[in-house]
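queue> holo job accepted (S-adenosyl-L-homocysteine)
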Amino acid sequence: MQDNPFRSTNLALRFMLLATLLICLIASGCSGAETGAISTPVAPDEPSATRVLNRQLQDSEDTREQRQRLVDNYIAPVVSDARVVAASQAVPRHCFIPTESLDYAYYDHALPIGYGQTISQPSLVATMTELLELEDGDRVLEIGTGSGYQAAILRELTDEVYSIEIIPQLLDIAREVLDALDYGDIHLLRADGYNGWPEYAPYDAIIVTAAPDHLPTPLVEQLSPEGGRMVIPIGPVGNVQTLWLVIRQQDEVQMERIMSVVFVPFTREQDS
Ligand code: SAH
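queue> job finished
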């Protein structure tokens, strides 16, 4: 019996279509180019566990539920300011985390974000934010943008957020994520935050998310003399540090010890 040439052409066509579809699926899976993810730069010498490949930028019912549990179990019990609790519920933390650690985005843990840095523990972010006593319209400066998560939390509470990061690659990633999540009006600067950002001083609040071994004088000088508040971990590199609340009244600086913490080191421009 002779083969029907029309039928075999039809089969070949179907096979080709199927193969094309498969190739497309594999390609989009590998590049992370599916909707909601963006590609980000990778440092060639980074260990693979901390490589920053892409970010999942979609919020879903599942991620919202995970966040709700994190807030109910770990944030609401330690933070009494309802606005800070609401901000923790609003900001999708998983969008600030490299894909390798996505499964842990809503654990109350610090996580690696690449370049030897970490995103802080969510309950600690909330605690430090509450200490700033931010009011709408306040101007706040963060030193150590890192992933951008803390900056987004601050932006939920006031519309004037400034943040400085020393590692350019981290700043680029933070900018992309913040823009994609509609936090495009957060002001970011690549610099050594030791010197603050004098152009926009004074700040009603300053938050430092890396630990120097002493209180940087320029930051005190840029704190509002009308009761400006700064939250800062201070202590030896690679050891337990003390989290301080610094309150400035004119030329008087009052320091209150809050708790022991462990933060990544505050690096200086000449170190890097
Ligand atoms: N707030 C961040 C936590 C980042 S960890 C977040 O929400 O993800 C601390 C960050 O401080 C790191 O990204 C580190 O590169 C940065 N850093 C350290 N020393 C700095 C300095 N002198 N100036 C600015 N950023 C600094």
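queue> The two ends are 78 Å apart (CA to CA).
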